[in-house]
User: What shape does this take?
Amino acid sequence: MDRGFFITEIEACTDMMYRVAWSILRNDDDVQDALQDAALKAWEKRSRLKEEKYFRTWIVRILINVCYDAQRKHRRNVPLEEIPEGTYASVPDPDLAIALAAVPEKLRLPLVLCYSEGMTYEEAASALRIPPATLQGRLRRGKEALRKELKAE
Amino acid sequence: MKRDMENLNLRDTFKATPDKCRDALMTAARSVREEEPVRRITVRAVLITACIILATMAIAIAATKTLGWVDFYEIFYGDSYVVTKEAQEIMDNTEQQTFTIGPVAFTVQSLYADEQEAMASTLVTTADGSKALIVMDYFYEDTLSNNDEFGEILAKLYGVDPETTWIDVAKKLNCPLYSVGARLHMQDPYDSGGGMYDALYDEEGRLVYFSTSGIVYPDNESVAARGTLELPAQLSLWVEEVDLETGDTKDIGDDLVDVKVPMSLQSEPVEYQIPEDYMVFGLHLDSVKAAKTASGVYLYADFTDQDGMKYRRNYMRPVWTDENGKEYPEGITMCHNIDVQWPQVNITSLIAADSIPERIWFQLLDEDKGEENVPATMLELKK
Assistant: This one.
């Protein structure tokens, strides 16, 4: 992978990376740090990407690891109540956003990868490092949780 | 509005990428060089501090050889969280199982759960006792000094400068370096999705991996229905070997192994007598209940909002004290939930008490209000 390809791909993945990182960290400052760290780590590890067509899944996997690392420093997932008020006011579908935010992270992230970023089950499972069957189970339960949250509104 | 859950589109749940995030990412991407990658860039001065904090590993060395959850809480949280004797006994009775992936052995030291959280601690060593460095996840690029004061101890153990990276320590010791994980996942239908993980090193440099997984315990499921007090779970284990020259990692293997987590069920809840029309921050106290588990005593304070959500949820903290005014330490599941289904506000806490107190003092604090807070009120168990 040369520098030009790397920059082009990162640019193309920027919005997806932001959404994935936000889904875990739920704080723009932490997301900003995570995005930088992920880009630098990806470049350092570029020799591990055997086929450039898998760049998107590969960068997401690195980003998720970086986000978990950052989360680990805080010892705990960010609880819903710690998300600043008004956070969802500027999104196109605030009701759905609030409901999604209430879904536990382990269920939320598969939903985001598949239903926001359009990843296949195999891609999302690879990015999350879980078996596809586990991913499908989490998607099913994630949707149930989302449905429940939407009903509660 | 009815949603089409089969054709779910979550893209609209995100705002546009903020310029500062986009700029930070692209600045980092453009900073790389073909010959030598840049280790870290800073977009603005304030980020430097944040990055340094982020780079600080939380791994610690404990003075004892047998590391468990007691050490975990003491080292990371002081005396804020307490492992009860009863929970410790359940953990100590864990049947030790060892799983081997390539040259690395994972020995499950303790498993424990209540209805909120499951916990596992796993000792990670080389399978044949040979010399190797084992690092949690991908922290092999960090220096030993990133372990705060424990960096010095690690450095002394390995006879290197604290500013040495794990990779360079492995080079000096002429031994392999493995990156490992041992994370607990509950299985359906018990997996709530939450959890955390961290690690400690003992004085011989052996890694103990701590992992928790949140539990959803179905209300309608009885002990008899399951016939057991064990929950099905899996430990996700993996090993990668770090190339000491390039810093790249090579997959050695991974596995999902089944484990049974012994579970302490809650006792039937009992109720406290509460003062009539007790109000705090516009919330009317409806009931306070308690249920015993091996983790301690779960306390459930239920309120109804009567003042249009004027309370400040992010600042509220329930405080439970004994007759001497001493606050109960929290229990090991770190349960501290404020659940709002307006107008109902339900607060759940876990205190590390051996039995349900006959009398307990309750105060709901707004941590920003100091003297303006409503004083603690005494609650007595209903006869």
Summary: Chain B touches chain A through 69 residues (CB under 8 Å).
